[in-house]
Write a structure and sequence with these properties.
The complex is a heterodimer of chains A (180) and B (139). Chain A has 180 residues and is α+β, with helices and mostly antiparallel strands. Chain A contains 5 helices and 6 strands. Classes of the chains: A alpha+beta (180), B alpha+beta (139). Chains A and B meet through α1, α2, β4, β5 and β6 of A and α1, α4, β2, β3 and α5 of B.
């Protein structure tokens, strides 16, 4: 008993109030660079400002509201709130209830989806920024609220999502190029 | 009696680990201003503020952050990374003289400031790779 109290005491002393981030939080790992490939596309023969305009148009197509922008740095951020109910979770909750579980299972209720889209010029071999070739990189994250009001957050890494997004952006870039 | 004594020591230990509201507001319990500035800053030999900022944004994205806001005039970028933990980071780029840029970063992990110089060193070495420039400590 005494030993346990002492151990708890030492544990608390060591932990204090602070928790520190895991090592390599700020180091570039091969997985991160692979993620970069997935999230980036190159667009040629279009000026940065036109590419940004085409991008903001796509974000509107997808129902996002613009949050912030700094066109001088090629940055757009946008967000939207959406329903987060999932059929799988509802089924699981139903099965649990049928099995006689007293406590209702917390299910995803709604979510805030955030997106940051960054355009940057491709650098040539001398490190000079190109006027007409740019890289677009888009990143999505979402915060989901459950029925018990708890939340969880995640960065979206689904390959399909990015492929679909860039298909839409390519269409928009085409339309922008032809001023349709 | 002994149990009460141990409980008292334990309570003191818990309280000692934490800080008052004022200390929290000013983060006053975490080393001097100068120390913080020193491990949170690096100097790059370039006069191109925009290039450094764009490279910073690109590095943050590489590290899995989603940009919250950016401002060229102020030279600031804020970004958040979510997942198991939540990390929020602000990076500023300020001209130092006519041919150098001072990059300064501060970050928090969930609800705690990141104070391990090694974490900042890792960040700046990632930024170096994106900038193709070497980072120097101040002075």
């Amino acid at each position: 008993m005494k030993k346990m109290v002492a151990a708890t005491c030492v544990g608390l002393l060591l932990a204090g109030c602070a928790v520190q981030p895991p090592p390599n939080t700020f180091a570039l790992t091969p997985e991160l660079l692979q993620q970069r490939q997935l999230e980036t596309r190159r667009y040629d023969d279009i000026k940065e400002v036109d590419l940004l305009s085409a991008s903001s148009n796509v974000l509107q197509d997808l129902g996002y509201n613009l949050e912030n922008s700094e066109t001088k740095l090629g940055v757009l951020t946008a967000s939207k709130q959406r329903d987060a109910t999932s059929a799988g979770e509802v089924t699981a909750a139903l099965v649990l209830a049928l099995l006689g579980s007293r406590r209702p299972m917390a299910m995803s209720k709604d979510q805030t989806i955030r997106v940051a889209l960054v355009v940057r010029p491709v650098n040539d071999s001398n490190g000079k920024a190109s006027e007409s070739s740019h890289l677009v990189r888009v990143t999505f994250q979402r915060v989901v609220r459950r029925t018990d009001n708890s939340t969880y957050a995640e960065t979206l890494k689904d390959e399909e999502l990015y492929r679909d997004f860039y298909e839409r952006l390519s269409k928009s870039v085409f339309l922008e190029g032809h001023k349709l | 009696m002994r149990l009460i004594f141990i409980s008292c020591i334990m309570a003191t230990a818990i309280l000692a680990g934490c800080a008052s509201t004022n200390q929290r507001v000013l983060d006053a319990d975490t080393g001097t201003q100068l120390q913080k500035r020193s491990y949170q800053s690096r100097v790059f030999e370039t006069s191109d503020k925009e290039k450094v900022l764009r490279a910073t944004i690109s590095t943050l994205q590489d590290l899995g952050f989603v940009v919250d806001r950016a401002d060229l005039t102020l030279g600031a970028v804020s970004a958040t990374k979510v997942g198991v933990h939540r990390i929020t980071m602000t990076v500023t780029v300020r001209p130092q003289g006519s041919d150098r840029m001072l990059v300064r970063a501060n970050a928090q992990f969930n609800i705690t400031p990141i104070e391990d110089p090694k974490q900042y060193q890792d960040f700046f070495s990632s930024l170096e790779k994106s900038l193709f420039l070497a980072a120097h400590t101040e002075g």
